[in-house]
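[Q] Does anyone have a clean structure-token version of this?
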Amino acid sequence: MVVVLALLLLGAGLITLLLINTALAQGSFRLHDLQATSDRLADTQQALHESIDAAAAPERLAQQATALGMVPSQSAAFIRLSDGKVLGVAEPAEAPKRPTVASSSAPTSTTKKKTSTTKASTTKESGTQSTTKATTRR
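[A] Here you go.
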């Protein structure tokens, strides 16, 4: 009876160790998956920050403003937040004059004539000779 009890305790201990080892392995796989997800999210976050920095760059903002029809101001005015007073005199900006392009008269079209040369060919079976002349116009 003592031997059976010892074997049961030994078997229960081994099963418990197996279950603990399995739980640790599952936790390890889960940790690896979470770390991979974290790395992917960090890369995405960095790419988004770079995209925002590129969009907020002064030259990009100037391009977008020009595309919207905005022009740079020649004068500036500032509002002092403490009392709301306007410092300076702002004047409306004017769009720079665009150069004009002079167009020439309508182009004339020229027609070229191309005539192909006369070919003489002989067929092997009949031994007869035929002559072909073709004229092509473009």
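[Q] Thanks! Anything notable?
[A] The longest strand covers residues 119-122.
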